[in-house]
Write a structure and sequence with these properties.
Layout: E1 3-7, E2 13-17, H1 20-31, H2 36-43, H3 47-51, H4 58-68, H5 72-76
Antiparallel strand pairs: 1-2
Helix pairs in contact: 2-4
Length: about 90
């Protein structure tokens, strides 16, 4: 189980389970040879925003997807978009 380590206001480390979206973003960034700080800078967000990524605003998700060179659909879903069936 993946965890994200944070600093508690008192300076003690606080660990919580990483969100599936954070894990996905981290994996996509690694595949593209990007460190999280590079991705954050390219997306115009903080590294803390990436770590806390659970239910992002559309604008944040779009910025991250653009920085990764993918569509927002690809970022937010594990499955490729379904193809439309053509009527005969």
């Amino acid at each position: 189980m993946a965890t994200v380590s944070e600093r508690h206001p008192g300076g003690r480390p606080r660990v919580r389970e990483a969100s599936p979206l954070y894990i996905r973003v981290e994996s996509l960034a690694k595949r593209r040879g990007l460190r999280l700080d590079e991705l954050a800078a390219n997306a115009g967000v903080s590294v803390a925003t990436l770590y806390q990524l659970r239910d992002p605003r559309v604008s944040t998700a779009q910025a991250i997807a653009t920085a990764l060179g993918i569509t927002i659909d690809k970022l937010l879903t594990d499955e490729p978009p379904k193809k439309r069936m053509r009527s005969a």
